[in-house]
Amino acid sequence: MANTFIDKASITVRAGDGGNGSVSFHREKYVSAGGPDGGDGGSGGDVIVVVNDHMSTLMDFRYKRKYIAENGMNGQSRRCFGKDGQSLTIRVPRGTLIRDKETGAIIHDMSDGEPFIIARGGRGGWGNKHFATPTRQVPRFAKPGLPGEKRDVVLELKLLADVGLIGFPNVGKSTLLSVVSKAHPKIANYHFTTLFPNLGVVYVNEELSFVMADIPGIIEGAADGAGLGHDFLRHIDRCRLLVHLVDAAGSEARDPVEDFETINAELSQYSPELATRRQVVVANKCDLLGEDREGLERLKAHVTARGYEFFEMSAAAHMGTRELVNSIGGLLHTLPPVIKFEPDYIPPEPEAPSPDDIKIEQFDDYWSIEGQWLSELMRSVNFSDYESRIYFDKKLREIGLFDRLEQMGIEDGDTVGIYDLEFEYQS
Question: Is the pTM of this model over 0.70?
Answer without folding.
Answer: yes
